[in-house]
């Protein structure tokens, strides 16, 4: 299965993408995670990306298209893949088509803006493995410690309230039109994001069950 995961920032793409990856045994790639790693390492791409990310804007298309091109041409993706957070603009989706990549579905997790703002304030990320938690909806067993690898959790700089508003604006103006793009190709599946992670997962798995062998 070649899957695109869409949704506003904080809709639960990363969390659901990890669940789908486990169940289907296919790799998930998050352009956001890759860009954050590049920022941390201080690479040329990271330096270029940082100011856009800090402002809640999209990193230029050519940068993320380059990342995805490299990733999809690697051996890891031969049995399928999940793209978490790519494409995020019409030119990115067109670039994917030009690469000749066949997509089976574009799954959009729908969450109202008011909920997003509430969710982002409680989001915590593992500093080592990138696992995502929420202080109320998906708390770690021990506060501020990752269940999986035991590393410290942190709050993403771009989860600050003002930045979240500008990320939402970017989502609605530049990314959301992709729903029409994929609907017109008969690939769009929409799932309502629920309060509880496991309830959203159940809906996601049901929606994807038609792709099971
Ligand atoms: P995410 O972790 O998916 O919320 O992404 C964090 C930030 O990385 C976004 O706010 C953008 O600045 C940048 N980013 C991630 N994916 C993309 C993409 N496909 N196109 C442009 N910018 C991206």
Separation of the first and last Cα atoms: 10 Å
Mean pLDDT: 94
Biggest sheet descriptor:
5 strands, parallel
Helix and strand pattern: EHEHHHEHEHEEEHHEH
Going by helix content, strand content and strand pairing, the class is alpha/beta
Low-confidence stretches: none
Q: What percentage of the residues does DSSP assign to strands (E)?
A: 15-25%
Widest sheet: strand order? 2-3-1-4-8
Helix content: 40-55%
- Count of separate DSSP helical elements: 9
Number of strands: 8
Rg, alpha carbons: 16 Å
Ligand names: adenosine monophosphate
Outline, from the CA principal axes? Answer: globular
Explain the overall architecture:
This protein is α/β, with parallel strands linked by helices. Helix content is 46%, strand content 15%. The chain has nine helices and eight strands. Strands 2-3-1-4-8 form a five-stranded parallel β-sheet. Strands 6-5-7 form a three-stranded antiparallel β-sheet. Strand 5 and strand 6 (132-134) form a beta hairpin. The model has no long low-confidence stretch (mean pLDDT 94). Adenosine monophosphate is lined by residues 9, 30-32, 35, 52-53, 56-59, 64, 85-86, 88, 92, 158, 167.
């Amino acid at each position: 299965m070649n899957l695109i995961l869409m949704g506003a920032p904080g809709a639960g793409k990363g969390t659901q993408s990890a669940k789908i990856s486990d169940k289907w045994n296919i790799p998930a790639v998050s352009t956001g995670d890759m860009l954050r790693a590049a920022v941390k390492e201080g690479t040329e791409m990271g330096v270029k990306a940082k100011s856009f990310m800090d402002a809640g804007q999209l990193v230029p298309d050519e940068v993320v298209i380059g990342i995805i091109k490299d990733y999809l041409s690697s051996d890891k993706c031969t049995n399928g893949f999940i793209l978490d957070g790519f494409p995020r603009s019409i030119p990115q989706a067109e670039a994917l088509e030009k690469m000749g990549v066949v997509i089976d579905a574009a799954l959009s997790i729908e969450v109202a803006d008011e909920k997003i703002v509430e969710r982002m304030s409680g989001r915590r990320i593992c500093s080592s493995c990138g696992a995502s938690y929420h202080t109320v909806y998906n708390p770690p067993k021990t506060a501020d410690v990752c269940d999986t690898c035991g590393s410290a959790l942190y709050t993403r700089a771009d989860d600050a309230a003002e930045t979240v508003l500008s990320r939402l604006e970017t989502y609605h103006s530049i990314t959301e039109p992709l729903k029409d793009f994929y609907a017109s190709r008969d690939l769009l599946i929409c799932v309502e994001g629920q309060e509880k992670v496991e309830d959203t997962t159940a809906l996601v798995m049901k929606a994807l069950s038609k792709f099971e062998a």
